[in-house]
Each structure stands twice: as structure tokens, then as C-alpha cells.
Amino acid sequence: MRLFSTFNLLITLLILASCNSGPKKEGDFKILPSPTSVEISGISGLLASNIEDLVDQAKADFISGKALEGSKNKSLTFSLDANSDLKAEAYTLDISADQIAIKASTKEGLWYGVITLGQLVQDALDQDAALPLISVRDEPALKYRSVQLDVKHHLEKQDYYYELMDRLADMKINGIILEIEDKLAFEKQPKVGSSDAWSIAEWKKLSDYAMARNIRISPLVQGLGHASFILKHEEYKDLRDDPESDWAFNPLDERTYEVQFDLYSDALAAFPHAQYLHVGGDEVHTTGRGSGKSALELQLTWLNRVSAYAEEHGVTPIFWDDMPLQNAGVYGSIFNRKLTEAQVDSIWTVNEPNLNKYVDLFPKNCVYMRWNYSMPETPGNNRAMKWFTDHGFQVMGATAGQTRWNLMPLEESNTANIRDFALISIENKADGLLLTLWDDDSPHFELYGRGIAIFAEYTWSGQKRTSEELHTAYRQRTFGSELASADFSFINDLEGPVAFWKNALLDKKDRNQLRRMDNPIQEAVLTLPEANSPGEWTERNKEKLAKAKENQVKVDSVLYKIEASKKVAVRNSYTLEVYEQVAKVTQFSNKSLLLLAEWDLSKTAEEREAAKEKLLNLEGEWKSQLVELEKVYGKTRELNKPDDYILDQDHHAHLANQALKFSDWQFYVEDLFLQKIKEGNSLNMSGDVKNK
């Protein structure tokens, strides 16, 4: 009996020893954003599953306001030394055989050390690998790494914003500029807020949640221009600079400032941790109402008033800088890659006096935000930034992860522009950079994720990875290590079909402009083939048909990869579902075009009737597809505007503000095309038809 008991004890000890030894496999670790330096020297004896609990507890402690350095756990220790040479958000992370140590000079540095440790643990668990023996030294290249959230045309569901704060924190984003417009239920000017707006208390709750994760939300309240959300209302029409346009305020009317200051007051109450008050000010010309003041004087009159308000309330104003540069005649030099430095200097020599004579009117407390979404590397862009710094003004750049792309961001999520502006900002020792995510054409927000990750990488690390390496790291961090392989790369493959989709069902017209046409079916939607001219339509559209056929094969491959990815993704499968819906939308256009060619090239009446039946069935197929898409999108997104919402009357052709119902603006072209198919078939596809 004793021998049997001893044998059992030995087996038990062996099992325990085996369990404690943990996995011995080396893992492939991809920290994002890249640390300043990383040295891996082997395998740790610490179990990732045990450390995961410690990471979760450390995050919970930081979020609740507890001091991490007070932790008593021997496996994970924190050291806070305000006198060390580590920068404000810098940290060191060392994993030895049996201990993890994180050191920093600030609590924020400790927080980012925990974030990095969490990524190492996540990779180890994904791969059933050991934690590495690792030494990380890390600090941000730019102090302020901010993302714009633009809610002017729609809101996400509230839970989504809270999840987003966690995701942004994991990428070491530390700021948000939130373009609020009418999505705040203003108390001092209640007419401005839409009926679906969040209350001050609701936005404050999100602001507190973000701040607990070292993300400071600051409001952007559009002013001077982009004021349609205010000036479209009858009560404010007398404040218009042009009585016929809801675009711009009259900067010479004192009530303009009474209204804007009321909006500022409520916005700062909703976002009490704000560092900045972004006042907008872009893309606007004012008339002066016969005052004799120049456009630049008028804008600076307004800017001084709102900047003084910001200073009085303890925040720094941010102002888009384009209009002073346009009014002075130097703006064109910024967006011309062909100009040499000498040519740019020549343009500025002639026109810079137009700026200099007003230099004393530029408020000193303002940050002048140099936005450039396509060519930040030009000599003209650098010269513009230099003018502000040479005159003692603060300047910050703004790049973009989304501009005017309808269905999803393109150009590798604007990688080149984000990289170039980040590197320029780092080289010029700027304080920070903003990533704008415009809601003008309003793709699903999940599709912005890769661009945010790219921005996080370049603003924290500079250029440490190639574009391919960065996208690989994004896939690993977002979906899991099994999807890091290029075999699962599909987003870039989808960009061409998405770009083609935009106007595929139109005759050399742009989807954004259709609402301005009297009869878009006849003026813009693709002309149908005619029964008495077989083959002519196909010949006329041969390039478009070749692209549709090519894209059909490409999108089939993308859909196959997405389906395979969904089976192995360990997180964020919803992102894959959204991309899947985008791919299916593009495939509908490809199929429609090829079916029209099939009808046009039919050899017999029977073939033509069969093709006609397929075309008429497109409407039912599209309706089913739309139901599926809205079910997926609707998991996180408020799809439609309130019934009482008043659309802006401004001159911007923002697709997302052209109708109350999501499908009525996002897929207006598809609806018109299907209407034309129905009418065209009843007329044997002969000639054009008019809107009903």
C-alpha cells in the first residue's frame, strides 16, 4: 500500500512538473507599434496563461486609478522613478526566467509597458509558445498621437465606442479629436442638437472611460465655415454670411460668437479632459457684408475671438490653416509635386508679403494644423509649416486614414501619406500628428482599423518596418498569429474592385454628384444595350467589361480568403464579416455588367429571354444582399438618421448626408440601375428611361 502510494505521488509530481514547465516552443512576436529596441535571448520559464491574469489585473488597477508600483506580485514588478532619464510615456520591459519587470518615469509609461506585455502574452497564447527572454526599451517618437472621430453624419452604437477606446489604447493612441457637430444634445442652444444626439452626461462618461486609458478626448466644434448643422435651422438664418447659403457664419455679427461660445461651453462640459478646442475654420470664404475687410482679415477677426475664448477656458485652440494660405496665394504650391524648392521659394517670395502684413493678427496661443492628405512630402508643404514656426506659432500636421472613399479606405489605407507625414513630423520635432477619419462618405468604421494601426506604428516608432511587414503585424495583432501569413492578405486585393465599383454602373459620371441631377437615370446611369443593335453595347463597354470580369475572379479569391480567415481568426471576426459584405457589394456590380453583355450577345430569342430573366432577378438578389449587409453593419452602427432630421443644404456633396436612410445614399446608384433594368426590359432595352 505504501509502495503504491509512493508511486502515485511520483506520478503526480511528474505531471505537475510537466504542467509547470509550460510550452518550450519559440514564438513569433510582433509588437505594434514597434518598440525602440527589442532583444530576445531565449525562452522564459513563465507561463503565459498565468501572466495573462496579471496583465488583466494591472490594466484594471491602472484604469481604476491604483498605483501599479504598489503591486506585491513577485512575478510582475513595477518601478516608477520620476527622476530617471525615461521620457513621459517611455518604459523598459524585461522578462527573465522567472520574473517580469516594467520601469518608467510616469504612470503612463508603466501603462504602455503593460500594453506591450499584453501583446507578448497574446502572441504566446495564440501560438502555444513560451514567453521570450526579452529586453524592451521603448519611447514614442511623437508626443501627441491623436485620431479624429467624425460623428457628423452618423453615430455608432454606444457599446462600440467603449470597445474602440480599448482598441485605441492597445495601439498606444493617446488623443482623440471628436468632431461633434449636432451629435451633442446642446443645453444652451438646444435646437442645434439632433434628436439622436447623446447628452452631455453620456459623452462625459465616454470621455472619462477614455481618460482612464490615457486617451484624452478634445472636441472639434465647426465654426465660421462648415456651419450647416447650425445655420440650416430657421432660428439661425440671420447669422449667415450669405443669406442663401447655410455654409458660413457672418464673422461681424456679435450673435455669431454668442452661439458658438454656447456650443463650446457645452462641448467642454461633455469632454472635461480636453487639452484642445478644435475650432475648424477651413474651406470658407466670407463676404464681409460691405465692411471693406479682406477675406483674410475677416477670418483672423473670427479666429482671434474664438482663440481668446479657448485661452480663457484653459484649452489650446486648433485651427485648420488652409484659408490664410489660400488667401495669400501660396496654397497651390503645397499640392504640386512638380515644383522644385527653388520654384516654391519663388512663389513664396512673391506672395508671402500677403501673409506677413497680417502676421500680428494671428493669435499666438493657437495650434495651426497643416492638413495634407495626399502629398505632405512636397517642398510647398514644408515651406508652409516653416512659415508658422519661423513666426513663433505652434504647428501640427494632419494626415488621413479616410478621405472621400465611398465603400472602404483605399491606397493601402493611405499608408504612404501617413508614413510620410509622420516622418516629416518626427524630423521637424513636432509635438504630434492627427489622423483624420472623415465621415463624408461614411464607410463602416471597422474598415478604418488598418489605417489606425499604420498611424500608431509610424507616430510611435518612425519607420522600423516595411509596408509589408507592418501589414503582417496588423493581421497578427488584429486576427491572431495564424492570419499573419501573406496567404491571408486580402485587403489590398479588394481595393481595385472597390475603386471600380464606385462608378461601374454609371456612364462616365461620379456617384457623389447624382443627387444634383434632375434625371440621374438618364443623365448618369449606364445606357442599356438595344435589341436592334446586338453587340454594339458590348463593344462600347469592352474595357469596363474586361475590368468586371477580372474583378469577378479577384473578388471570388478575396471571398475565399475571408471565409478561410473566419475559420482560424481568434479575435475580431466581425471585422472580417464587414470586409466580406464590401466584397459582395462589388461582386454585384461585376455580375450585373456581365449579365448585360450576356443579353447583348445572345444568339437566339431563347438565350436573350434567359438572360433577361437573370437581369430581372437582380432586384431580388440585391434586396437579399442588402438585408444581409444591414444586419452585419447594424451590429455596431446606427444605420439611419431620425425621421425628423434636417439634411444640410451646403455645397459639399457628402454621400452620407444625402438621405435619411443608409441604403438610400450608400446604394442610390444600385437602386437607380435596377429601376432602369426593370423599365428597360419592358421596353426591350431600347433607349433610355426617365425617373418615376
From TrEMBL:
InterPro entries: Beta_hexosaminidase_sua/sub (IPR025705), GH (IPR017853), Glyco_hydro_20_cat (IPR015883), Hex-like_dom2 (IPR029018), HEX_bac_N (IPR015882), HEXDC-like (IPR038901)
Keyword Hydrolase listed: yes
Name of the protein described by the UniProt record: Glycosyl hydrolase family 20, catalytic domain
Domain of life: Bacteria
One GO-annotated biological process of the protein: carbohydrate metabolic process
Similarity comment: Belongs to the glycosyl hydrolase 20 family.
Catalytic-site annotation from UniProt: E283
One of the record's GO molecular function terms: beta-N-acetylhexosaminidase activity
Record domain Glycoside hydrolase family 20 catalytic: where: 143-350
Pfam families from the UniProt entry: Glyco_hydro_20 (PF00728), Glyco_hydro_20b (PF02838)
